[in-house]
Queue: 4 jobs
Job 1
Amino acid sequence: MKLEQAIQSTKFKNEVHKATLNVLYTAWWLKTLMSKELKEFGLTHEQYNVLRILKGKHPEQMCVKDIGCRMIEKNSNVPRIIDRLELKKLVKRNDSEFDKRETVITLTQSGIAVLEATTGKVTALLESEVLMDDKDAKSLNGLLEKLRAGE
Amino acid sequence: MKLEQAIQSTKFKNEVHKATLNVLYTAWWLKTLMSKELKEFGLTHEQYNVLRILKGKHPEQMCVKDIGCRMIEKNSNVPRIIDRLELKKLVKRNDSEFDKRETVITLTQSGIAVLEATTGKVTALLESEVLMDDKDAKSLNGLLEKLRAGE
DNA sequence: TATTTTTATATGTATATACATGTATTTAAT
DNA sequence: ATTAAATACATGTATATACATATAAAAATA
């Protein structure tokens, strides 16, 4: 679907303005798509993101700050996302021995199982819905990084 | 900044997977950038979006549904965003004469003034931070629509 | 060593998102 | 004409986002 249809507007100041709206809309579209699959597992998008980050270091523990700086949405409130994952017994909090300010987190066996099942489903969904070859994806990655060049 | 630095990860399944994360991250980056400017005017990103949509039809009134389907994030709770804009006297609610189920909304004079001031600032900010020429923006728009082709 | 500053996390508040439900009104079906 | 279905909006709840503040511990400084 063209952006014009999606937001029922044709008035863009220029192509750059249209591109900013297009990025925002595409992100919403992707999130909505993934959330439908995640919901089956009782997970939200950001809970899933935290589980995947923990998986990357497993079986090592990670402190809250290190999880936070790997999040896609940097202002996510990681302690509260962990609260909910802990309630579902998918992660476990421990006090750090090296630095008593830190809380360190690990995946539980249950967390690993849920993450693996979820990842399979999400990957399959994206493969079937995101119809883009590697060459185009590479161009897209380059352009997005160009857009953020001033970061 | 490269995505790899931004989310401190280099493990992407493939370029398409990286592109999905890159879109999500870029959207967050854009929203954060704009929010900084909007905050000066006491507006949130979605409140600003509603004001801009109303501007497109002004001085005509728009019903809640028509605003909703022009929103970038479709699941936004438009009545509640309007509640806050109404409290700030930036918009006005009226009962529709044609269909008593509808509430129709218009910008107030104050709303128009705030919107114009805000738009000027936001536009200037994007021009200075989004360093991309029209040609690249056009390619980017094409690729994003390719990504969502199955929509 | 004592004090200050910084860091890591948690908590509080307002708004937003996602979704379910309730209510009034309109449209369609019987 | 009456009933049923659909529509428009509002409201309620759980979670997330954005940001301010609080608390404890570590690091830096006097």
Job 2
Amino acid sequence: MVTISDIAKSLGVTPSTVSRALAGSPRVKESTRKAISETAVLMGYERNEPASSLRKGHSNVVGIVVPRINRAFFSSAISGAETVLNEHGYSVIICQTHEKMEDEIKALKTLKSNRVAGVLISHASSSLSGDHIMKNIRPETILVQFDRVFSELPGPKIVNDNFHGAYEGTHHLIEQGYKRIGHIAGFMDTEAYLDRLNGYKQALTDMGIDVDENIIFYDSIVEESGYKAGKTAIERGCDALYCAGDFSALGAYLAAKDCGIRIPEDFGVIGTANEFFTTIMSPAISSIAQHPYEIGRRAAQAFLTSLKPESNVGQIVVSMEVMARESSLRKKEKR
Amino acid sequence: MVTISDIAKSLGVTPSTVSRALAGSPRVKESTRKAISETAVLMGYERNEPASSLRKGHSNVVGIVVPRINRAFFSSAISGAETVLNEHGYSVIICQTHEKMEDEIKALKTLKSNRVAGVLISHASSSLSGDHIMKNIRPETILVQFDRVFSELPGPKIVNDNFHGAYEGTHHLIEQGYKRIGHIAGFMDTEAYLDRLNGYKQALTDMGIDVDENIIFYDSIVEESGYKAGKTAIERGCDALYCAGDFSALGAYLAAKDCGIRIPEDFGVIGTANEFFTTIMSPAISSIAQHPYEIGRRAAQAFLTSLKPESNVGQIVVSMEVMARESSLRKKEKR
DNA sequence: AGCGAAGATACAAACGTTTGTATTTAAAAA
DNA sequence: TTTTTAAATACAAACGTTTGTATCTTCGCT
């Protein structure tokens, strides 16, 4: 393995000059910088990252912590973040928490041991407060939260505009003439779900519809819970459901089908997240799309700007978009 | 940050003893080992991984390189590998190649710079040989290939039993009475697809059916290609398709639907990989399932055993399983 | 020519761990 | 008690980089 000293020797300079040259420091003359970087590639030099990290006190690695990598939202967000981080010389270490706070702590400890430069995190649903996050992050490490955030924690936060997304989605159902619209809401310890609930309520209120707690279902947003909630919603006279997740929407959708209820004629469904499967069902499932790739990009950018001393990124809100598909369209398009 | 020397000082021993104690070396007395590890947790010691990696020449990190993390197969394989690696004190750094050899080289270079202990890789479809892999891996680094492998490269290989999976899938279609069975095959530079093609051909031959190259489609296995191939297959009189991927199966399935052809009565479809969406379509799409979680586990285990000097893991074949669903079942179940 | 100020490079220490070798201590044998 | 052996720990160097400080050039200016 060729080191910085090998290059130094072969050119008759010192390792420090080589180091500075490769880092692009203004302290080394342009001509020598060029000579050094040329022989570096010639000799096949590759930086020893552990050595660099040890000396600098932190690595060129950014940790990304998410509940699961096989959700459309998270894998896209990761891709977005990865792309901009790679462009800036950082590599990425991805950790799954499987929605468990215990695994989240383990992941953060690992990242801490590896002296990562930053952590981009969307916390597990079982994490009820951000205490364990702050405890397992070094003060120099830059923390960026995205999607699911604890607003009491410091640092940049990239979030969906859940309130308005939910509002628009609910409004869309009302516009399509649905009268009794229920909501599969998720658990209220996650801010994102609370915002969606509030958007839903606001949309109803604005259109003069009373909020009925009997048709709001607080449960995990997986297919099975959606199915159950769907059945109950139908029993309670709902003719539409706005779901905080696509898998719960799928459950409700299948429940309606199993009851022999026609979608969208007799029952409207709209989910959230724009998972791939929603587009290929027949009828296709409407969904409130996020922009996960963009959110990942923004999170990475927030990390990069936070690297600079005086920066202060704060909260960034990314819009959501109603993808109206067959499952909620019973009026002819007017355009 | 508390270091090994801090612990040493507080106990009146030397750093080397602490290091050995924490590593569980037999060279330190049991009683001192206990005392050391106790004060270590008491003082909140956390190993500085970069320092450790620098000294040892390699890190406690394993790189996993896959085409995309949002494919059911890969995200499950990653989960499997992650689980067993974490149990053994390794963390995981995940790289996506987006099927591009260029990105694959970048990923390998990054892993090399980080002195990873091992690389688990499923190569990009545009990687035509393993040369660039060998070139960008240090000789001490353990290379494990899984799913898509280059058999000319050394080291453990964990593969699906693609031949028999394809054989069984094709056989299943024949058994269901389909007479003219086409194949969407993928590109032949990936061994997995070649094996599937051969399994398909063998099944036909064994049942006395001639192989017809006109109904074998060599194209990328995405939805769009599947749709096109599906149309052509129908024109050429096929009454069933075995597809090397689920997305191409989906394309063909939609093509048949668009042509007003009934599935499974007039046209049978079976895909490969058991993606989530195949289970929720109506009719549900049959698929030849792999065991990705198991493959990930095996790959990680192969890495761990390769750590031992005299080990020689070789090739491991993991079976596949036909998940017969509505899209290929037109006879009543006989059991 | 002499002086001062940048400009360019050299020097040297440090980051925290691991590990081969040397030394001390304890136990066993004589 | 002395000698031999083994067990336990101490010593010290090394891994490759980065970075503050020191030294040496080079140039422009008077």
Job 3
Amino acid sequence: MEQYFSILVQCPLFSGIEQEDMKAMLKCLGGKFISVSKGDPVFLEGTPAQLVGVVLSGGVQVVQDDYYGNRSVLSILQPGESFGEAFSCAGLENMPVSVFAMKDSQVLLLNCGRILTLCSHTCHFHSLLIQNILKGLAQKNLAFTQKVRYMSQKTTKEKLLAYLFDQAKQQGSAEFVVPCERQALADYLGVERTAMSAEISKLKKAGLLDTKGSWFCLKHVYQNN
Amino acid sequence: MEQYFSILVQCPLFSGIEQEDMKAMLKCLGGKFISVSKGDPVFLEGTPAQLVGVVLSGGVQVVQDDYYGNRSVLSILQPGESFGEAFSCAGLENMPVSVFAMKDSQVLLLNCGRILTLCSHTCHFHSLLIQNILKGLAQKNLAFTQKVRYMSQKTTKEKLLAYLFDQAKQQGSAEFVVPCERQALADYLGVERTAMSAEISKLKKAGLLDTKGSWFCLKHVYQNN
DNA sequence: TCTCCTATGTTGGAATTCCAACAACTGTTT
DNA sequence: AAACAGTTGTTGGAATTCCAACATAGGAGA
């Protein structure tokens, strides 16, 4: 158990909480360490939604099945990442997703109800924990907002430019570096890599853009295209 | 001021808080009621991100400008709705958006820092408020997750079916009613209304679907298309 | 009933995307 | 240098979407 404290203190969920407080906190929250074999579920859809999980080792997958059993992968989580907050905090009765171990994994399960309501005046880490959850959810919200804005553009070119303009703004310069490669960027924007490549070439030839690898430079010629 | 308490108690942000507690709470949180004329800003991009706003009357618009000044509308808020939580809770230094009044409006501004940290042991509504914010953010997260999942499908048909399958599942029946009209549904899915209409017709002719207005019925024939 | 209005469905050609196959470039290893 | 793997750019035809214009249906009100 103690062996995982060094992982936990690095996890965003526990940011600001000292390692020596960890044990008391886990006790207060009713934390349970569980081992899950590769392919086995951490929990299944329909489980009461009051769990927050933290991956300690291995890796897990959050999946959702539709009405006809077609399965889609919502996210893949590495050690240190947490899952389930959104469902538990949204006030759902039951989990709308299942979580499976992709490798043999260790997972810490917390009871979300205890996090949100109990004893907030005695444990000082309690409000810290809530703020961390809040911060995580809020950041995901912002990330989603951006992604949806890019994806809502009609054409590949518009999606790409919307993204690049945002990057320029965030990094405060028309010259900047994007955090991923072409394929990953295309996937993120919901476009085809080859179509995106073609658009980039066109923009280059038109003198509106320069790029090499993950480095981009926008020329100051834009208004509304 | 008191005149707005009846609006506030209906607002999701203050759900569970009694009208008689409202005054004390607003004092504790440093709430400020402000009037904004049509077209004027509630706040501008760059303002320190620690505000949460609640629309009391009129209506406001959240807008974001890109690096070259192209403006896009992120959301439109009616009385009772709140804004700014995501930015404040995400730990941003400054607001990345501006908020403008679309009509003459009354707005309540709260200091998010006070909500999250102060005096959580004395005011019992404090933890309620935090839970309400948490719940709101979590619900938006789930909504975004779904929307992104639909929009990530390649074709109009796939986007539509992903949505319909989800609706069937959520409503627990292959027969269900969608909460909006064709045009709004198309906009939400990021497709063209006419293309969507065409797909619906095809599915109907293929006997996979029946629909009239907002009523839909999926036939049990699907596996993976 | 007739008219108006809005929501929805239909259609055809232009524009765009998708997909597969391949070419060019880069960095690494041998 | 040569071989190799991985990333990025190019291209052409099939599939799909976009867009405008029009058709149809149903409801509200005169």
Job 4
Amino acid sequence: MKSVTLKDVAKAAGVSYATVSRALSGSNQIGKDTRERIVRLCDEMGYTGNYVARSMVRKKTDLIGLVVPAIENEFMSQLAYYAEMSARSRGYNIMLCDSEPDLRQEEKVVKLLLGRMVDGILIVPQSPATYEKLGSYLDQIPMVFLSENLRDQPQSYVSVDNSRGTYLGMEHLYSLGHRNILYFGRRDSTTHQLRAEGYLQACRKFGLEPRFCNSDFPRSSIENGYHLARELFSKPVDYTAIFASTDSNALGIMKAADEIGLRIPEDISLIGFDDIPSAALPRIDLTTIQQPKKGMAVQAVEMLLDKIENGTQGYIHQILLPALVQRGTCRQVR
Amino acid sequence: MKSVTLKDVAKAAGVSYATVSRALSGSNQIGKDTRERIVRLCDEMGYTGNYVARSMVRKKTDLIGLVVPAIENEFMSQLAYYAEMSARSRGYNIMLCDSEPDLRQEEKVVKLLLGRMVDGILIVPQSPATYEKLGSYLDQIPMVFLSENLRDQPQSYVSVDNSRGTYLGMEHLYSLGHRNILYFGRRDSTTHQLRAEGYLQACRKFGLEPRFCNSDFPRSSIENGYHLARELFSKPVDYTAIFASTDSNALGIMKAADEIGLRIPEDISLIGFDDIPSAALPRIDLTTIQQPKKGMAVQAVEMLLDKIENGTQGYIHQILLPALVQRGTCRQVR
DNA sequence: TGAAGAAACGTAAACGTTTGCAGGCCCTTT
DNA sequence: AAAGGGCCTGCAAACGTTTACGTTTCTTCA
């Protein structure tokens, strides 16, 4: 278990350990043949280097903290995937922290990351309140918010144009002849407010009557969508399409509709938001608005690394564009 | 950005920094009132502690490396989720490393973790070959393998009884009257060999004729399953049920069947393996064999922490039991 | 009252690196 | 041949903790 250190290698090579360090760090302050000899020796001796000691003196860990609410969630795991890839290609590793189940945990996790000396934090906030909670840490460490739109807060974040997304979907439904479209879902967080705004804009533009079915669940899941939809469908269905604020909700609606024999898309059209992998599954085949997950993750990492490496001070709000993904749950109204 | 150190606090408190350290570490070598005073002061000054320095002297990082092939994969992200929860409850953090795309990367990642001084490694190996590759590192750091069955290798792992899983499924199909069951999928890795073995055992027991449709794709995905199934269905369908070696494959089969108008479960029964979240989705509703993901992750973490904290030397092969999850894709044969 | 022992706190070494500074050698130049 | 200048390499400090050991003060009991 005893690992080999710089000193061991130095002794074996008959040089000082500073020389070994230089040989490995790619410094130009060293002779070519000496370097080669040392590098070879390190290999043979199985020297791996000690990142902790290194971090100690360089005050840099090449580690970035990724804080997400529930990695098991499809959307989060995709973000994590792309963030990890992109960070690794730049020489950084990811420390994964789940911020479940509540805001207190989220704050705890951020505090912990501070002590761990990660170089920066990438965080998918649980709610707008996160921002308040984290206010005091913001100047202690580079931080980039991901996915949630923080509106005009003076902090960097990358998000998607949520209202435009809903608008795109509405446009699509309108072009299919739908004139009575129900908006289904949460309206609490900024993200969801914006999505609802896009809906309202579209209604105004196309001269439609806005109709809402509000969820007050703090998290949108299939189950929550299902229960709300059961309730919804117990009343007369006098609309031809439903815009679900998330794919999860859409799946819940689909389940409820299937159960009561309401056919999608024959009887009613359905469109979601997010484009989680499940939406592309056979039989599900959900028409939806795509969040550019890879782009978001990559951009957020770029932003964070820019702050870390160049000490960039100001902040950027990067809003990516969503896209309509046409699948099988929307149909021309008869 | 300058963070406050032990020394700063010590100066402010008028004590030596050893005293501050003791006040925080819960040592009993310190007076009650002094401790309280110092703890309060740390709070006020915003002292977070420096985990790197701490790790340096304690030779312990309270960090465990989690190596998975592609976290975006549903199964992996669930494992990661439970592993993170369970590790955190024991005071450890997770360093997430994707071992994509090949074995070389996997080895690179493990090497990197060694240098990072994680206390242990939890790894979901890409293939049995991983074990060979990693042989030389095994005695340098506690390591536990997860999910893949390494048979009788002298290393700790937690896996699921794969052959029993298939057997359970076969039993179910048999009880529904199926006498002609096709096994569909990979047979390369140990895991998949064992699943196929369970199939063969059941065939022997029930007096059935084994029939295979082999995939030589190195990874089972919906797409791969779909393409293979298209090919399969171009020939006459003279079996009443398909046992897919993974849920992903089953979903591919489902897609292909839907396309050619082969009805599931009316015309043919389908059963998968893994119980990924997608299997429970409305419309999919796949009957499958469940891997106890939470149990696996939790056990693996326990095992690893036991090695780390108690220096437990030997190795354990823990094989958990799978369970049949009855949903809607299997039906009594007419 | 005095000595022994415990409790509280300070001192300093150690962990394994990186890096500024200084010194030594050799080569070039005048 | 002497001086100057590069190129290598070594020395030692520094990073922020923990902890063994030593010292001082306080308690306690004979």
